[in-house]
Design brief:
Blueprint lengths: L1 H23 L1 E7 L2 H18 L2 E7 L1 H11 L4 E6 L4 H8 L4 E19 H6 L6 H6 L13 E4 L7 H11 L7 E4 L4 H13 L6 E5 L2 H5 L2 E3 L8 H8 L15 E8 H6 L1 H9 L4 H13 L4 H11 L1 H4 L5 H12 L2
Parallel strand pairs: 1-2, 5-6
Antiparallel strand pairs: 3-9, 4-7, 4-8, 4-9
Length: about 325
């Protein structure tokens, strides 16, 4: 009889879990290929699964293909970290209330982008904090394959920032100064090039963004173009593929949002409400990314670390019922 009761209780629990997942349904989350977005995607999956009973799964993602798919097909359901400077069209569509909704700010402080050099270089030669100084000293930034060229490390192919950094490379006439645009191949390749330079205090010049563990670990100085910020031109031309006459502008501060499919928001109001509240400060994200890097943890392990150790943060994002479920799940990690 006892075995039958235990079996019945297990069946009821299984049915309850199944019904909860069915109520929320399947949710696809873009697992974008840079560290902060990877962490957010895994945190979101854990919270949706364990707090809201969703059948949540990660799907490969990147700025341009994910944004295009969401506009054209309304999928995946969630893009955890979309930078406005990188893909303005997705925000135009969301603002017009078509297939998308802007849920909330992924990064409450916004994102920071620019061209950077190591701080130790600027201490040795202060003019390297300016684009004029960089161009006069192009030969010191040795190209990894051609010693006669200077290396500018840009964004990996497929990233939205590849468009803007490419246009700025052109508008600044860096090729005329002796630079070649180097595609690092991946986010890891780009960060690895900075780490390698720092190991021997070698020259490095390229694009990067914050918040990141890299800029927290390695002191870098943003290069001043001497142009100020032309936000209108940046949005209308520098961030667009067909920008025929790019003009120089510093990167405007970039609001960073979580974007969801409208259908997901309508069908799952409680889960959508979570995304309207889920937001990290740059200090919080830098701390988490530094831990992730030091521990060589993947996104899943980093998400578990966050759930176990940062209840004071995530408990403010979720309903009371979801918080109770997540605490139980955290205790089982």
């Amino acid at each position: 009889m006892k075995k039958m009761m235990i079996g019945a209780m297990s069946l009821v629990a299984a049915l309850a879990t199944s019904q909860a997942a069915e109520a929320c349904g399947k949710v696809t989350i873009a697992d974008m290929n840079w560290s902060s977005a990877e962490l957010m995607a895994n945190v979101d999956m854990f919270i949706l699964k364990n707090g809201y009973g969703c059948d949540a799964e990660l799907v490969p993602g990147d700025t341009m293909p994910t944004g295009t798919s969401m506009i054209e097909k309304g999928e995946p359901d969630v893009a955890p970290e979309m930078w406005t400077n990188s893909f303005p069209q997705i925000f135009k569509d969301a603002g017009e209330g078509k297939k998308l909704r802007i849920a909330g700010k992924s990064l409450s402080d916004g994102g920071e982008e620019g061209f950077w050099v190591p701080e130790y270089l600027v201490k040795q030669n202060p003019e390297l904090a300016t684009i004029e100084g960089i161009m006069k000293n192009a030969k010191m930034f040795k190209h990894p394959e051609d010693p006669d060229l200077g290396a500018f490390y840009g964004c990996p192919a497929g990233w939205g920032c590849q468009i803007s950094s490419g246009h700025l490379f052109k508008s600044l006439k860096l090729a005329d100064a002796g630079f070649d645009y180097v595609d690092p191949g991946s986010g890891a390749g780009l960060s690895g090039s900075i780490a390698k330079a720092y190991t021997g205090e070698k020259p490095w010049f390229g694009y990067y963004w914050a918040p990141t563990a890299v800029l927290g670990k390695y002191k870098m100085v943003m290069v001043d173009f001497g142009s100020g910020v032309d936000a209108e031109h940046f949005k209308g031309c520098l961030s667009q593929k067909d920008c025929e006459e790019p003009k120089t502008s510093m990167y405007p501060p970039s609001p960073v949002y979580t974007v969801t499919a409208s259908d997901f928001a309508s069908k799952n109001p409680q889960a959508y409400d979570y995304f309207t509240k889920r937001s990290f400060t740059n200090a919080q994200m830098n701390e988490l990314l530094a831990w992730k890097e030091e521990e060589q943890a993947d996104g899943g392990i980093a998400a578990e670390h966050f759930i176990k150790n940062y209840e004071a943060i995530w408990s403010k994002w979720v309903s009371g019922d979801a918080a109770a479920k997540l605490k139980k799940a955290a205790n089982n990690l």
